[in-house]
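User: Sequence in, structure out. Go.
Assistant: Echoing your sequence, followed by the C-alpha cells.
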Amino acid sequence: MEPDVSMETGSMIRIAVLPVGGAIPHRQLREYAAMLGRQTRIDLSSISSFYKEHQKSPFAHQPWETGCLRFKYMLGGAPPSPWEDFQSCRKILAVVGLCHCPSSPDLDLVADQFAAACKGYSSALAKRCFAFCPTDSQLEDDGKKRENIILFPPSDRQTQEFHMLTMVQDLAATLLMEFEKWVLRAESTGTILKTPLDSQSSLGSEEVIKAKKRRLGRAQKTIGDYCLLAGSPVDANAHYSTAIELARLTGDVFWHAGALEGSVCALLLDRMDQKDPVLEEEVKYRYYTVIQLYRRSYLQDNAQRVSTVSFELEAALKLARYLCRRELAKEVVELLMGAADGAKSLIDASDRLILYVEIARLFGTLGYQRKAAFFSRQVAQLYLQQDNACAAISAMQVLTMTSNAYHVQSRRANSKPHTSPHELGPSHGDGGKLHPQSVVSLFESQWSTLQMVVLREILMSSVRAGDPLAAWSAAARLLRSFYPLITPAGQSGLASSLAKSAERLPPGTRCADPALPFIRLHSFSLHPSQTDIIKRNPLKKEWWTGSAPSGPFIYTPFSKGGTTNTNKQEMTWIVGEPVQVLVELANPCSFDLIVESIYLSVHSGNFDAFPVSVSLPPNTAKVILLSGIPTKVGPVSIPGCIVHCFGVITEHLFKDVDNLLLGAAQGLVLSDPFRCCGSGKLKNVSIPNISVVPPLPLLVSHAVGGDGATVLYEGEIRDIWISLTNAGTVPVEQAHIALSGKNQDSVVSIAHDTLLSALPLKPGGEVTLPVTLKAWQLSMVDSEIDSSKSSGSTRRISKEGSSPVLVVHYAGPWTHSDQSNNTENSVPPGRRLVVPLNVCVLQGLRFVKARLLSMEIPARITDALPKQLYGDKNPAEVVSRDDSMVKIDPYRGSWELRLLELELSNPTDVVFEVNVSVQLDNRKNEHGMPILNHENADFGYPKTRIDRDYSARVLIPLEHFKLPILDGSFFAKDSRASDAFCSKVSNMAERSAKAELNASINNLISKIKVRWHSGRNSSGELNIKDATQPALQASVMDILLPDPLTFGFRLAKNGATAQINGFPEESIISGDPPSQCVNGSAVKCKGSISAHEMTHMEVLVRNNTKEMIQMSLCVACRDVAGENCTEGNNATVLWAGVLNDIRLEVPPLEEVEHAFSLYFLVPGEYTLQAASVINDATDVLRARARTDSPDEPIFCRGSPFHVHVVGTA
C-alpha cells in the first residue's frame, strides 16, 4: 500500500529527487527541494517550445490549451514496486539530482555519481542534475559537455525560480516525447506485462493460452495509463474502455478492476472543474465495482498466497477520500470501517501502518476526532513494535497528534491551533473558546483510564526516542491529571521519571506543560499605601473631593457611575513600590515536593518578580506571598506563576486551576487537589485590571515616643506628636489634614501651618506635627471593663477603635517627568494617609451630683475709694479686677450670692488636684469700649485635692456671668409666644424660647473650666455640661439677668463722696476680726462710722434697663434685731432729709442720687437697705418679675449694706 492515494494518483508522474556530489547543507537542501517542489503542475501550453514531434503523436486528443502534466517528487527516491506493470503511475519515470557546487568542485565526479544513481531506476525515461551556486571556474568549464548536468548560476531567488521553471518544462517535454515513443512501440510490437500474480501461475498449456488472450487487454490498459500520465484523459478513456471489454472477455478480473479504476481517473480529469450528482453517482458506481472486482480477484488467487487485498483497501480509501464530506459522513464511515476490518488480511505490517494512517487522516478530515485518535494509536502501537529509535520518534509524534482528541494534549500544541485542509465546519474535538456546555467534554472522567494509557504510551515512546523534554511533558501531564488513580509507588515513579528527564535537559529548559504543584490565586495582599490612592481633579482646589478611594478597587458597588461592560475591578500599582499577591499551593501526592523557585508570571515587561522557594510535604497545601516591583507605566496582566520544579521551568495558569475546580464542583473530574490537602473552599478570585502609574510620594507616619497607645484619663489634655516621613521618590507638594472616625471633637487643635510650611517635602524629608487631644468622656457604649485591674473595684476603659483618625490627603507634582503632555488622564493620582490617634481613655474623676446654692454677704462701709468698675467718665478706662474670690457690683452693694456645688468622686488609683476657673467675655460699655481686657478674663479659685477612692465638693460662684443690661431681647420669644392669633406660631415660639434658654445655659457652662492635675505631666479638664445643666435649668434667668434697679450708698464728707466698698466683710476674706476696734478707740477701724456725728450719705439708684423708670424710693435703717431704727419712740438713729416715698425718675442705663444724713445715737452694727416700687412697669420688667398682671406693682429691694458705728453711748 501507498500513503496519500486518491483517484487522481493515476495521473501523477513520479520523479525521484536525489542529492548528489558532496554533502549539501540542510538549509540549502531544503531550499532546493522546496524550489523544485513548487513545480508540480506543468501546463502543456508552456512546453510547446521544448516539444518536438518526431512522428504523429498517439495522443490524438491531447488538450494542449487546457491540459497539464502532474509531477510527484519523491525526495530520496523510492524502491521499485512489483506492481509497476499493473499501474504505470508507480514507476519512477524521471530522476532529478540536486548538487551544491561549493561542496562538489569536480563536476565530472558529480556526473559519474549521478549516472550511477540513475542505474537503480531502470524505468526512468528522463534524467537531469541541477547544480546550484557554481563557482567561476565551474562556469568557465561549462563548455565541456557533461550529460544531464544543468548549472544554476548564482542569482536572486526570482531568477532562480524562473530558471527552475524552465528546466522543469524542458523535463516535462522530454517525458511527453518518451511517453509517445513508448505508446507507439507498445501498439506496434506489443509488450509483456506481468504482476506478482502471474509469476505465481503455473505454466500449463491452458494458462499459456489464457495469458496470450489477456496480453492485448493488459497492453490497452497500460497504454491508457500512459495517456493519463501524458495529460490526455480522452485518449486514456478510449484505451481503458477497450481494456475493460477485453478483460471481461478473458476473465482477467484483476486487470479489469485496474482498467475500470483508470477510467474513473480519466473521467475526473476530463471534468476537472465539474462536480454534479450525476458524476458523483457514476464515480461511486464504478468504484464499488472496482472494490468488488479486487475482492473477487483476491478470493480467486488466495491459493497463490499473493494478496491483492491492498488494492481493494486502496480503492476503498480513494472512494472515501472522494466522498469525504459531512453530509456523506455515514457512507464514508462505512467505507473506512470496512477498510479497517480488512487490515487483518494484510500480511505486511507496513501496509497496516499505512492503512491506519490513512483511516485516521480521513476521520480527522471528517471531524471525527475520537475515531481518528483511535486509529492513530494503532499506528503508534505498530511503530512501538519496531525496536528502533526512528520508529519510537514516529510513535511519539503520532501520539502527540492524537492527544488533542483525548484531552491530554500538550499546552504547547494547543497554543497553535490546527487548521483542517478542508472547510468542514466545527469539529467534534476540542478547541476554541470554552463554553459552559463544553465543560463536560473537557472533564470526562469515564475517559480517565484511556487518557492514562495514551499518556503512558507517549511517555514510553518519548523515552525510547531519546526525547527528554517530551518524556518530561508526558510524565507531568500524567502526574498532574491522574494522581488520584495512581498508587503512591506510581506517583514516586513518575517523579523519578521527571527528575531523570530533567537531568538530560540543559539548565533553564522550559516546558509548556506544568507538573506540580497546583496553584490558585488566593488574594491580593495590599499595603495600606496602595489602598488609599485617589484620583486628582485638577479643576478643584480640594482635588480629593468627589473621589472615593477607600480601597484598591476604584469601582465599588456603592459608587455612582454608568454601567460598564466588564465585571473586572480595577487596581492601581505604583512604579518602584513593592506589591504582593497571595497564592495557594497544593501537593496532593505522596512524596515531598520541593519547588526551587516560584514567582509571578507577567508578560507585559513592566514588572520585576521576586522568586521564592517552597517545600511542600505530602498531601499538604500552603499559602505563600509572592512579591515584585512595577518598573514602568502601563497595564499589568498576571495570568499565573512561573515555577521551577523537577528541573524544568513551567508556567502555571490560574485559569487552568479555576476550570479544574469548576469541574470538581460539578463532579466532572476525579478530585479537588486543594480539598484533598485539607484546604477549605475558597471563593473564586478574579484578577482585576491592574494599571501602573508613575512614582508617587509616600508618607509614613509614626508617633514620637512609640506607636503604643497613649493612656489618658477622661478630660486629660495632651499633645501627641505625629512624625510624617516621605519614603517615596517624589516630593509632596500638596497636603491637607482632616478628621475622621469617632470622637472627633476630642481633637482640640492640629498644627496645619506646620505641615504647610514644610511643603514641598522632599524624598526622605520629615515633619513633626503636634496634635492636641482632650480625652473624651466614656459612655457605656464605647467603653468596657478593664480586666487587667486586679483590685476589687472595677474601672472602665475605652474600646478599641473609638479613637479619632487623622486623614492626610497628599500628592506630588501635577505632571510627571516622563510625561510630555498634561491632560486629565495623565495627572498622577494622589494618596490618602490614615493616621489613627491610638489613645486609650481610662475612667477619671466622676461627677456625683451638682446643685445650686445661694447666700447673702452684706457689704460694709470703708474709707477707701476704689475705682469704678464701669467707667462712665472715661469710656476708654479699663479697670483691673480684684483678686477676691467673689466679684461685688459697686452699684448693688451686697446681694444674694449664688454658688454651683459640684460633688466629684475619684475612683482611680491616682490623686487629683482640681482647679476651677471662669472665663469672661470682653464686655463693652455704651461707648463700644471693652470693660475687661483679655489678660484679666480668667478668675481662678483655690485648688481642691481629691485622694483616690474619695469624694470632694467644689464651689463655683456664678455672679461673674450677670449681664450688665436688662433688655427685651431675652424675653422676645416669650412675647411672641403669648400671641393668641395663631397656636402654631405659639408652639414654634415656645420651642424657640426653650432652645434659646438651653443655648444660654450652654454658654454659661462653657465659661466654667474645671481643670485637674495629677502627677508630674497629667492634666486635663472635666466636662461639666451634663452634670450642671439640670441644676441650672430653673435658675438661669436669676443667674444671667441683672435686677432692673440696683442700689448703692456712699458717704459725703467735706463735699467729697466716698463709695461703699464692694468687698465682703474683711473678717470673711482676710480673717481679721472686728475686735481690732477696742472700746471705741480714737483710732477707727477700717470701714467704721463714728457715733454722735452727723453722717452725710447718698443713695445711688441705677437703671439697668433701656427704658425710663418712675418709682417711689424708700430707705430703711435697721439694727441687729431687724427693728427700724428711725421710727417710733425708741429711735436710735436721727435722720435729716427724706427717707420715705421719694418720687424719682431714672433715665435708661444711668443713675440718680438722693442725699440724706444720719445721726447714730448708739454705737453698734446697723444695716441700710433701699427699696422702691416701680410705677407703670413695662413688659420687660413684668417678665423679669415673673408676673402677668398689669395692675400688680413691681417691688425692687436692694441688698443690705452693713454699717459699723463706733463710739460711746
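User: And one key feature?
Assistant: The radius of gyration is 59 Å.
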